[in-house]
Design brief:
Strand content: under 5%
Keywords: Cytoplasm, DNA-binding, Transcription, Transcription regulation
Order of helices and strands: HHEEHHHH
Radius of gyration: 23 Å
CATH topology of the largest domain: Multidrug-efflux Transporter Regulator, Chain: A, Domain 2
Protein name: Cu(I)-responsive transcriptional regulator
Distance between the termini: 52 Å
Subcellular location: Cytoplasm
Largest sheet: 2 strands, antiparallel
Main location: cytoplasm
Organism: Paraburkholderia ferrariae
CATH architecture of the largest domain: Orthogonal Bundle
């Protein structure tokens, strides 16, 4: 099948299929005489695997490791579990950072009058942060 058909079958866009090929997550079986990529059921299955891994937030390098383990029938499930638990820890960190950002923004918004006056703690905080960054060592103007 061609890339459009593989995209429809897998639920992955043709653009993403090309990207996955460029980073080495997917290798098409071959090309036609006219140079078109050829995909089979195995590639579509791999694309579905990649799509699901991306939905779970895995990065390309983790997906590469998971794909290798998926194809290795002698794998130890402990390796897969280790990758998953590393990802859970990363997600927990990101959730904590997002919660802190939300709390900060909610606090600033609650202290903003939201009227016709120019005074605004949200703008002031952003400006303070920008000023602080400009005075940090190594900052390029």
């Amino acid at each position: 099948m061609n890339i459009g058909e593989a995209a429809r079958e897998s639920g992955v866009t043709a653009k993403m299929i090309r990207y996955y090929e460029s980073v080495g997550l997917l290798a098409p079986k071959g090309r036609t005489e006219s140079g078109y990529r050829v995909y089979g059921a195995e590639e579509v299955h791999s694309l579905r695997f990649i799509r699901q891994a991306r939905r779970l937030g895995f990065l390309v390098e983790d997906i590469r490791r998971l794909l290798a383990l998926w194809h290795d029938r002698s794998r130890a499930s402990s390796e897969v579990k280790s990758i998953a638990l590393e990802h859970v820890a990363e997600l927990d960190q990101r959730i904590a950072e997002l919660s802190q950002m939300r709390d900060t923004l909610a606090h600033l918004a609650s202290h903003c009058q939201g009227n016709d006056r120019p005074d605004c703690p949200i703008i002031e905080r952003l400006a303070d942060a920008a000023t602080t960054e400009c005075h940090e060592p190594g900052h390029v103007h």
